[in-house]
Specification:
heterodimer, A: about 575 residues, alpha/beta, Ubiquitin-like (UB roll), Alpha-Beta Plaits, Fe-only Hydrogenase (Larger Subunit), Chain L, domain 3, 4-stranded parallel β-sheet, about 35% helix, B: about 600 residues, de novo design (two linked rop proteins), Fumarate Reductase Iron-sulfur Protein, Chain B, domain 2, 24 helices, 21 strands
Chain lengths: ~575, ~600
């Protein structure tokens, strides 16, 4: 341990700790922009500079190690002036049209400039120009890029894709898609982590609100909305709702307030997924197919596999992702009624996800009834619509989802966190094999965390060992796949989620600068699961009705028509 | 399968190197004839071109700096823009991550005052503080010799005319041909292509092939009398021009020979006596009265000079030497370089045959003493200096020549005391040093914890700086500061109407060409003071510039006799350029008097 004095207060700090870390421990706040702990400590933005006694120059707090006896001043007029000048410089290369920016309320640059009283622009603004394919689900506006390199680091170090790179030097250094490729050819999984880690509005997701509003407004359209498991854990954050107030029931009311005709729960489709994928797994266990089988609920994972590990795509479960199943069920079961009324069906998915904006457009997923899902909104867009429509969510009464596609089990709810799909699948797979519901603890996967590459578990199912693994985040995924390929691990069933922590950490979730909220949101989902009276997907009575009235049996012909796909055939 | 390529520079690396080399070439000849703001813009753009672009102040700040400076250059009045430039430099210096950025800011802050002054001039008056000078070598020569003019004459084979052109601004073409430090070459535009033109080499070629060249016709006698104290380069330059102007000149020289440091300081092997006499003979041919062995204060009194002459020029140089300021256990065999070199010049050198000699100092005088001691037959000569060899103020070629001749350089050794030796009379005790932080443009030496080192010798020659014998003159009312006479920018001594000072005694120890330049300026100013405006120019036809492709071509250097041979005698060490050498060097001159802005006013320096 070393002793350092920060703003007059002498504190102990671990040797090798940064000034920023020591200051945080001492309760001193130092502003940052580019810094991401252990991921991007490159000291690029220079807003964290501090004075060190005995030195003429200032040190970057984020990547300067403390030394014994160091006397640090974080808040002198000279420090403030240097930070202000650097902020003004950054602004001179940033298109400051904050009023019409998707990140208006969550922009870290905007907040810092406000904090530092930047009320004049001494430099001519020269935001750089750049081209972008605005139809792609991931949108980049280079005129708002501040070259903090967070996207580059996140994509390369956390998500393994290395889609982003920088090119050129000096004043014309810029962030680009690697090798100058078009984004659709750059191996992007569309996880959206670069978006949620961008401090400004340089990276956003495609805005699909207009077509959703058109559908709601059209009297000849039945607007159906479904909402993903992980949405209920986060949707209230930007609205200022406490977690206990942001209930699924209030969320259902909020969706109704937007004017949707039917408000369904993707949790129901999660239960349906378990029926199909669980049954598929039971068959798989008695087959000689190559191990392991992979879950397929996450389109970011599917894209990643297709682009980076194509040798594993054939081992994906053929089950569609839950919201696509829901879309297929809605379109196929409500088609006759809608046609009779002379209306068309329009299915909207509210998702914590950017990749699903891609997925819903994949032509190979369509059924006789047309495309499964017509539009995907992120949670951010959902919250935006609630503000547009001036919905006072705190004052809303809680209501049920519409039935029969609204009833779900706790097993469906935990789909939103890493390990949840596996846990729900195990609860039902064990039942399908043994005829008995397993203990919840037998299937528990809450040990899964993006801080570890993966976690494994071995179950004894009627004397048959079942070896499962759970990984989230594509960097972790790559490590697991490499280990599988190298024969270092033998597994039967693997759950992959592209985003660290699963959908609760999804690229379509609300953004809070430099806060990773996945585990907090996951706790919310776990609490909902524990409180649920139904916690086995196969016990969902409406699922049983759906099979009885429409599908028949899992994995039968209709199930394959509606609920399964061949990911190898997907357009990318 | 393999996974690691063997290193080989890529084509991109090689291309980058080519550009970088070209940048180094161009920047190496950055003159001071361009606008300071424009130079600053170029500097900051160069810095930006080296930036990786990671950090805010470097990536953006450097561009905003050049934006602001260019806006000032366009005359755009923006409130607080000058302060903003300084603020950006400060932020760059304080908050950039690496030297690419922070050093740019540090340099910006270092010339903040210059930027401010020039920016205010641009904004307030729309003019630059820096007058544009078309011909960089002429601008950089303290005496503003028409270098392209004399090179062109030499190229046509008109060596005598070349000498005439030089004498228009410098009456020591021959002395300078051997010993000038040639600042002109440092800004020679040819450096942008390959290397500066060998200007001194061509001057040498001109004087060696011209033979005796008549001086111009003197103006009609004015009846005015001017006394010049000191027969060195500055005094004789003033004497030459004032005599040409028709004034009656008397030179008071305390020694038995004219030439000052050129005779008594610079050894013959660098400036052979006949080559110095070439100039002195020409100067004296004007009928200047010279009083040798005439020390002011002893042989002639100040009052006689100021009352007996219309004007007085004090150009006494800096001929005294300091000692080391340490404890001396013996003074036997210890002498100053001044005394040592003076004795040699007088033909009365001390006997060093077979002796061990130590010289202390790192300037040109120290090298002169070192190389002279070697030539006097010393068994060993060690030159001890408290800084590093590269910090020596001596010309690099002088240091290298001394080493080649068998002398040893002992660097980073600071004098502690002089003890009595065991095998020799003298033991020089030194404390090993190491270079430290920069002070005044050089790293300051600091003492290391290493043990003291002892250098025994028979003779110790101290060459650690020259000082001026000012006491007599200050007693008479001539002002001094730190041992240097004070004057206005025209050389007029503070508090006097008709007394002028110049050369080393006014600037401190400096170069021959600066002393000459002072003599020239003072001559003009005395002439003006006396109520005249004489033009002493010898009109020489300068050949027109010719056009060619200016292809890169190697510079021909002046060669030297082999070290082993030259170390045994006092003959000149240099081997002058041959016909073909000189012809090629002449053709390398870019004629900046014609090409570029030089064409605007005919390319010649203004007549003075």
């Amino acid at each position: 341990m070393v002793a350092v004095t920060i703003d007059g207060k002498t504190v102990e700090a671990r040797e090798g700790m940064t000034i920023l870390g020591a200051a945080k421990a001492a309760g001193v706040d130092i502003p940052t922009l580019c810094w991401m702990k252990k991921i991007n400590d490159i000291g690029a933005c220079r807003v964290c500079v501090v004075e060190v006694e005995g030195e003429e120059r200032m040190a970057a707090a984020c990547n300067t190690a403390v030394r014994d006896g160091m006397v640090i001043h974080t808040n002198t007029p000279a420090v403030v002036r240097a930070r202000q000048t650097n902020l003004q410089m950054i602004l001179s290369e940033h298109r400051n049209e904050c009023t019409s920016c998707a990140r208006s309320e969550t922009c870290a640059l905007r907040r810092l400039c406000a904090d530092f009283g930047i009320q004049s622009m001494p430099f001519d603004a020269r935001p750089p120009k750049g081209e972008w394919d605005e139809d792609f689900p991931l949108v980049r506006d280079s005129s708002k890029c501040i070259k903090c390199m967070r996207c580059v680091a996140e994509c390369e170090k956390v998500q393994h894709c290395a889609v982003w790179d920088f090119t050129g030097s000096g004043p014309h250094m810029k962030v680009t898609v690697k090798d100058g490729l078009n984004i659709d050819a750059a191996g992007c999984a569309l996880c959206g982590q670069c978006i949620t880690h961008c401090p400004t509005g340089a990276l956003t997701s495609r805005r699909d609100i207009p077509k959703v509003m058109d559908a709601i407004a059209d009297p000849d359209t039945i607007a159906v909305v479904q909402v993903a498991p992980a949405v209920r854990a986060a949707w209230g954050e930007p609205l200022g709702l406490a977690r206990e107030d942001a209930t699924p029931g209030r969320m259902a009311s909020a969706l109704r307030a937007l004017g949707f005709d039917y408000v369904y729960d993707t949790d129901f489709a999660a239960d349906l997924t378990i029926m199909e994928e669980g049954s598929e797994f039971v068959q798989f266990m008695s087959s000689d197919k190559p191990r392991p089988m992979f879950t397929s609920c996450c389109p970011g994972w599917v894209r990643f596999a297709k682009l980076h590990y194509p040798q594993f795509v054939s081992q994906l479960s053929s089950a569609k992702s839950p919201h696509q199943m829901m879309g297929a069920v809605v379109k196929n079961t409500m088609r006759a009624v809608a046609e009779e009324a002379g209306k068309r069906l329009f299915v909207v998915s509210v998702m914590p996800c950017v990749a699903k904006k891609y997925e819903c457009d994949v032509p190979q997923l369509a059924t006789e009834a047309g495309r499964d899902v017509d539009a995907v909104l992120t949670v951010r867009e959902f919250d935006r619509m609630l503000k547009m429509f001036r919905v006072d969510c705190a004052a809303l009464e809680e209501t049920e989802f519409d039935n029969p596609l609204g009833l779900s089990t706790g097993a469906g709810t935990i789909f939103g966190r890493t390990g949840g799909v596996m846990e729900a699948a195990l609860r039902s797979a064990v039942f399908l094999i043994t005829g008995n519901n397993p203990d919840f603890s037998t299937c528990d996967t809450t040990a899964a965390t993006p801080d570890k590459p993966w976690v494994t578990k071995e179950l004894d199912v009627d004397g048959t060992p079942v070896r499962i693994a759970v990984a989230s985040g594509l960097g972790n995924t790559a490590k697991l796949l490499d280990a599988i390929e190298a024969g270092e691990v033998d597994l039967d069933f693997v759950e992959i989620m592209a985003c660290p922590g699963g959908c609760v950490g999804g690229g379509g979730q609300p953004i809070v600068f430099n806060q990773e909220l996945a585990s907090e949101r996951a706790a919310n989902l776990n609490a909902l699961d524990e409180a649920d009276t139904l916690r086995y997907s196969h016990e969902n009575p409406d699922i049983q009705t759906l099979y009885k009235d429409w599908i028949g049996e899992p994995l039968n012909h209709t199930a394959h028509e509606w609920l399964h796909t061949d990911q190898e055939a997907w357009d990318i | 399968m393999s996974r690691l390529p063997v290193f080989a520079p890529t084509k991109a690396d090689e291309q980058a190197r080519v550009i970088a080399d070209a940048v180094i070439n161009r920047v190496s000849v950055y003159g001071n004839s361009t606008c300071p703001l424009e130079t600053a813009v170029g500097f900051f753009k160069l810095c930006a071109s080296q930036s990786c672009g990671k950090c805010t102040p470097c990536r953006i700040g450097l561009t905003r700096l050049t934006d602001s400076l260019e806006s000032i250059l366009r005359g755009e009045h923006v409130e607080g823009i000058v302060e903003q430039v300084i603020m950006v430099c400060d932020t760059l210096y304080k908050s950039a991550d690496c030297a690419i950025g922070f050093q740019a800011g540090r340099v910006g802050l270092a010339f903040a005052d210059l930027i401010k002054e020039d920016a205010e001039s641009h904004l307030a008056n729309g003019v630059c503080t820096q007058p544009f000078t078309a011909v960089p070598c002429v601008k950089e020569c303290p005496s503003h010799v028409d270098i392209p003019g004399y090179i062109a004459c030499l190229r046509e084979g008109r060596a005598a005319d070349a000498v005439r052109v030089i004498r228009n601004d410098n009456p020591f073409p021959s002395a300078c041909a051997f010993v000038c430090e040639h600042p002109c070459e440092h800004t020679c535009r040819r450096g942008m292509i390959d290397a500066p033109v060998n200007i001194r080499g061509m001057k040498q070629r001109a004087v060696l092939t011209a033979g005796a060249v008549d001086v111009p016709q003197k103006a009609d006698a004015t009846g005015k009398k001017v006394a010049i104290i000191g027969g060195g380069p500055s005094g004789l330059t003033a004497a030459y021009y004032l005599a040409l102007m028709g004034h009656d000149i008397t030179v008071y020289e305390q020694n038995v020979h004219l030439g000052g440091m050129m005779y008594y300081g610079i050894p013959r092997y660098r400036l052979p006596e006949e080559n110095l006499n070439y100039d002195i003979d020409a100067i004296l041919s004007l009928g200047i009265e010279v009083k040798l062995n005439a020390k002011v204060g002893e042989d002639v009194q100040w009052e006689d000079l100021v009352n007996g002459y219309d004007a007085v020029y004090i150009a006494i140089g800096a001929h005294h030497f300091r000692d080391l300021g340490i404890d001396y256990a013996t003074r036997e065999g210890v002498m100053s370089a001044a005394t040592f070199l003076h004795q040699v010049a007088d033909g009365n050198p001390c006997d060093l045959q077979g002796k061990d000699v130590v010289v202390v100092g790192g300037g040109n005088v120290a090298m002169d003493a070192t190389r002279t001691a070697k030539r006097l037959g010393a068994k060993s000569v060690r030159c001890i200096y408290r800084r590093r060899i590269e910090d020596m103020t001596a010309l690099t070629e002088e240091v290298e020549a001394a080493i080649a001749e068998g002398c040893e350089m002992v660097e980073l050794m600071s004098p502690v005391r002089i003890d009595k030796g065991t095998d020799h009379e003298i033991a020089f005790v030194g404390q090993p040093q190491m270079p430290s932080l920069y002070r005044g443009g050089r790293p300051a030496p600091i003492a290391t914890r290493s043990e003291e080192a002892v250098f025994e010798c028979d003779v110790l020659i101290e060459a650690i700086g020259q000082i001026i014998e000012y006491q007599y003159f200050t007693d008479k009312g001539v002002e001094q500061n730190r041992g240097r006479f004070l004057s206005d920018e025209h050389g007029r001594a503070n508090g006097f109407e008709n007394v002028f000072v110049g050369g080393d005694c006014q600037t401190g120890p400096s170069t021959v060409i600066r002393a000459i330049a002072a003599g020239k300026a003072v001559a003009a100013n005395i002439d003006a003071y006396l109520g005249f405006g004489h033009d002493v120019f010898d009109d020489v036809r300068i050949p027109r510039a010719t056009f060619d492709s200016k292809l890169a071509c190697g510079r021909v250097n002046i060669r030297e006799r082999s070290a082993a041979e030259r170390a045994g005698d006092f003959d000149g060490v240099e081997i002058p350029l041959r016909d073909e050498d000189a012809a090629q060097e002449c053709s390398r001159c870019l004629r900046c008097d014609h090409f570029g802005m030089g064409s605007l006013r005919g390319g010649r320096p203004e007549k003075w």
